[in-house]
Design a protein that fits this description.
This protein has eight helices and twelve strands. A five-stranded parallel sheet has the order 2-1-3-4-5, sandwiched between helices. A four-stranded antiparallel sheet has the order 6-7-8-9, covered by helices on one side. One of its GO terms (cellular component) is protein-DNA complex.
């Protein structure tokens, strides 16, 4: 399978430099200069990874993330000129997987693309493996082979990282994971973000699966998180 990367930025010099470096590494690359063009390219090019600038005309990077909330297999690295933790948290809450602050080193960006591409590729288990069919917890069902989640038979819109995080927790109910454990398992050791990333994604998951009383995804104070054991009829 070709490794496809979409580069989106309104500064042509940045787009050209990133695209050139990626192509030298063997990636298939497409580019876009604004958010609206990026959405068109996503539909036609089907990238595994998108490098996405935040500040762009027509539709900014946050807007693109919002429009791609139902994506199942695109990893997003946000580029921003702001080194404010609030802006980074907003990006993660919108569904981005990683971020870099301009100016940045191309070599570091390539390393992050490689790490994210590896995680995206690993997140698709063989559909014919009977061990990877479904995880059931009450009305919540995780369809592993198709990377979909339903609650009361209604499909949820999860980002790749949300799906991976939920699957890890639900696959091992009652096992307590530290934030560092989850950060390593879902984002990988190369990820430079802090454990706050895990908290943000847990909050988003609770909202999406309707876990307002925090019975399915439980906080273990001072340690991390765990999933509750399935009720009667629930299974892995």
């Amino acid at each position: 399978m070709n490794k496809k990367v979409l580069v989106v930025d309104d500064e042509s010099s940045i787009v050209s430099a990133i695209a050139y470096a990626l192509r030298r590494e063997g990636y298939e690359v497409e580019t876009a200069n604004d958010g609206e063009e990026a959405l068109v390219k996503v539909s036609s090019f089907h990238p595994q990874v998108m490098i996405l600038d935040v500040m762009m005309p027509k539709l900014d990077g946050y807007g693109v993330c919002r429009r791609l909330e139902d994506r199942e297999d695109i990893g997003i690295i946000l580029l921003t000129v702001k080194n404010d933790i609030v802006d980074k948290i907003v990006g993660l809450e919108m569904g981005a997987d990683d971020y870099m602050t301009k100016p940045f080193e191309i070599r570091e960006l390539l390393a992050r693309v490689k790490a994210l591409m590896r995680r995206v590729e690993k997140s698709s288990p063989p559909s014919d493996d009977p061990k990877n069919q479904a995880i059931i917890n009450g009305t919540l069902r995780i369809h592993i082979a198709h990377r979909t989640v339903t609650v009361n038979e209604e499909k949820l819109d999860l980002t790749p990282k949300e799906f991976d995080l939920l699957t890890i927790l639900m696959s091992n109910p009652e096992r307590v994971y530290t934030r560092d454990d989850l950060l390593d398992r879902v984002w990988g050791m190369e990820y430079a973000g802090g454990t706050r990333t895990v908290d943000i994604h847990i909050q988003r998951l609770r909202k999406k699966i309707g876990d307002t009383d925090q019975q399915k995804l439980q906080t273990v104070y001072g340690i991390g998180y765990k999933a509750s054991a399935p009720g009667p009829g629930g299974s892995v």
